[in-house]
Write a structure and sequence with these properties.
Strand order of the largest sheet: 1-2-4-3-7-8-9-10
Radius of gyration: 17 Å
CATH architecture: 3-Layer(aba) Sandwich
CATH superfamily: Alpha/Beta hydrolase fold, catalytic domain
Helix content: 25-40%
CATH topology: Rossmann fold
Number of strands: 10
Order of helices and strands: EEEHEHEEHEHEHEHEH
């Protein structure tokens, strides 16, 4: 099933795309730019082909203003042209209070019977990981080439507790830190530090840091599919262990 719907939230309406087949026991909330929408069917089948065969829904939320909606707090680069409004909290509230409940109703599933994951690439990967420190809604986060260089995020994550038990998938391109921007150049060091911390965090059931060839822009669809498939496998293992 492929479906598009509009969800009204507090400050704006969201365009949501649903790809699913059969009964949903896992809902993947994927945050993407509008230009990614034509590639969603391909992403859905790539995930399935990577070996995950349980019933799941890939739910894509269109993000209109990438830097404004996905940033956890405000940051304006002192020298340069990067500017982030820090309105991630509003997006997260909209996910919790409007988008997820509407999707559960649309798919005719009970919210407490579904495993929820959140996934994203680049700044959406940062948001996905940050969300685990804000809410228990998501049992897994997939941060592919996540913008974990974001100023203050390492200190924030090291000083906060995750809200609940979860799985965390991290990936990065081997050349992503080889850039001139002094902020983005920290991404490798920060990602490795966070991964090391998650390995010893009792709340993290499964975690991995997967390295990919190339820079930030190489094969984002393939990297995202690998991450989501891995995290869904972990969720299946978690359910099997609880039976």
């Amino acid at each position: 099933m492929t479906e598009t719907l509009q969800v009204s939230a507090k400050k704006r309406d969201y365009t949501i795309h649903i790809h699913s087949y059969g009964v949903t026991d896992t809902m993947v909330t994927y945050l993407a730019m509008p230009q990614m929408i034509p590639k969603l069917t391909d992403l859905y089948w790539r995930i399935t082909e990577l070996g995950y065969h349980a019933d799941y829904s890939l739910v894509t939320v269109e993000i209109e203003d990438w830097n404004r909606e996905l940033s956890p707090w405000e940051f304006i680069e002192p020298v340069g042209n990067m500017s982030f409004a820090g309105e991630g909290e509003q997006l997260l509230l909209d996910l919790e209070q409007s988008i997820i409940p509407c999707l559960c109703e649309q798919l005719q599933v009970k919210q407490d019977k579904v495993s929820f994951m959140i996934a994203g690439y680049s700044l959406a990967g940062l948001f996905s990981l940050w969300a685990l420190y804000q809410t228990k809604l998501f049992q897994a986060a997939v941060s592919c080439s996540g913008s974990l260089w974001y100023p203050g995020f390492l200190e924030y994550a090291m000083g906060q507790e995750l809200k609940g038990d979860c799985d965390i998938y991290l990936s990065l391109g081997r050349r992503e830190e080889k850039v001139q921007n002094p902020y983005m150049a920290k991404v490798g060091r920060v990602t490795k530090k966070l991964y090391k911390n998650y390995q010893t965090d009792a709340r993290v059931k499964h975690t991995v840091l997967e390295w990919n060839e190339g820079n930030h822009f190489k094969e984002p669809l393939e990297r995202t599919a690998k991450g989501i498939a891995c995290a869904m496998k972990w969720q299946w293992q978690n359910r099997q262990g609880s039976d």
